[in-house]
Amino acid sequence: MTPITILLADDHDVVRRGMKMLLEDEESVKVIGEASDGLDAIEKVKVLMPNVVILDLTMPKMSGIEAAKVISAEYPNVKILIFSMHHNREYIVSSVENGANGYLLKDTSKEELMRAIKVVSEGRKYFPPEISEVIIDDLLAKTSGNQEETRPIFEKITPKEKQILGMIVQGYNSREMAEKLFLSIRTVDNHRANMMKKVKAKNTADLVKMAIG
């Protein structure tokens, strides 16, 4: 199996070395380059064309968000995984809006890091539950606004259902949601069914349309 090629971009040398050592034990991935700032990351992507760039957000010369915007626009086949200590709405939403395929906090486990790398390398999105919740909250805030017809939809669902709805919008299937939320597939399907009943959605596609306006 051809390994997933990785470019590490972080302005802290110790962090990059630690990440590289962590990933070197995995046959499924290969670190092919390192960058110390956003501009350096873009130049390295141009030369190395990795499958995945693991980007820190707060770097000198050019931030991770600015670098993500350039990379996603100029090199769409290169997937971007944000790896940050920041857990706030502004950073998370801005990262997604500027092309990030995934977002992980730096206290994540190695297992979740490997899962995220695999998922984004396949062209899918990867956001752990606590990040998904921030994204869907922002989405709902933007889509509800002053539209009276959309407000009741979100008033009727529970926080857990909101979390699952966010993952449905991102394209996760029941098995993937169950794994990420540590629930059974049946429980996820029950939440989905309950949401559809509450908002009178005919099917999942109808539910997604209601969510995104």
Structure description:
The model is unreliable at 146-151 (pLDDT under 50). The protein folds into 2 domains: 4-125, Rossmann fold; 130-212, 3-Layer(aba) Sandwich (Rossmann fold). Helix 3 (64-74) links the parallel strand 3 and strand 4 (79-84). The chain starts with a strand and ends with a helix. It contains 11 helices and 5 strands. It is of the alpha/beta class and 213 residues long. Strands 2-1-3-4-5 form a 5-stranded parallel sheet, with helices on both faces. It has helices at 13-24, 38-48, 64-74, 89-97, 110-121, 129-144, 151-155, 159-169, 174-181, 185-199, 204-212; strands at residues 4-9, 29-35, 52-55, 79-84, 102-105. 56% of the residues lie in helices and 13% in strands. Helix 4 packs across helix 6 (129-144) and helix 8 crosses helix 10.
What descriptive keywords fit this protein?
213 residues; alpha/beta; Rossmann fold; 2 domains; five-stranded parallel β-sheet; 56% helix; 13% strand
Characterize this entry briefly.
56% of the residues lie in helices and 13% in strands. The protein is α/β, with parallel strands linked by helices.
List the helices and strands and how they pair.
Elements: E1 4-9, H1 13-24, E2 29-35, H2 38-48, E3 52-55, H3 64-74, E4 79-84, H4 89-97, E5 102-105, H5 110-121, H6 129-144, H7 151-155, H8 159-169, H9 174-181, H10 185-199, H11 204-212
Parallel strand pairs: 1-2, 1-3, 3-4, 4-5
Helix pairs in contact: 2-3, 3-4, 4-6, 6-8, 8-10, 8-11, 9-10
Main sheet makeup: 5 strands, parallel
Measured between the Cα atoms of the first and last residue, the distance is 42 Å
- CATH topology category name of the largest domain: Rossmann fold
Give the proportion of residues in helices.
Answer: 55-70%
What is the beta-strand fraction?
A: 5-15%
Estimated structural class: alpha/beta
Radius of gyration: 18 Å
CATH class category of the largest domain:
Alpha Beta
Strand order of the largest sheet: 2-1-3-4-5
Described by the principal axes of the CA atoms, the overall outline is elongated
Task: Tell me the total number of β-strands.
Answer: 5
Number of domains: 2
Query: How many helices in DSSP terms?
Result: 11
CATH architecture of the largest domain: 3-Layer(aba) Sandwich
Per CATH, the superfamily of the largest domain is: Response regulator
Overall average pLDDT: 85
Series of H and E elements: EHEHEHEHEHHHHHHH
Unreliable spans are 146-151
